[in-house]
């Protein structure tokens, strides 16, 4: 993902509209690109700050952004664990099937 793409994804990221692959590429890029992280921070301040302007001092942008990024990453991890689990189940089924097949012969 390049900067242009990443910056287009920022709004979708906050709206939780990115699919898991996009979200991962987005987080990867933003974490390694200072410009996009800055853009993300500004966008976050704009969207969150406006609605909480009266207590804007309470906003810990860095921490909140980090939490959001981590949430995406952990969701992604869960997703891949789920996929690994499913793979194992299929593998076991194939083994049972093959072993069963062997037994019949
Ligand atoms: Zn970038």
Quick recap:
The chain is mostly helical and about 100 residues long. The chain is built from four helices and no strands.
Q: What helical percentage do the residues reach?
A: over 70%
How far apart lie the N and C ends?
53 Å
Proportion of strand residues: under 5%
Ligand inventory reads: zinc ion
Sum up the overall morphology in one term.
Answer: elongated
Largest sheet: none
Q: Using only CA atoms, what is the Rg? A: 21 Å
Task: Give your account of this protein's structure.
The chain is mainly α and about 100 residues long. The protein has one domain (about 5-75). It contains 4 helices and no strands. The protein has helices at about 5-15, 20-30, 35-50, 60-105. Helix 1 packs across helix 2, helix 2 (about 20-30) crosses helix 3 (about 35-50) and helix 2 (about 20-30) packs across helix 4. It is elongated. Bound molecules: zinc ion. The site of zinc ion (ZN) has 6 residues, from helix 1 and helix 3.
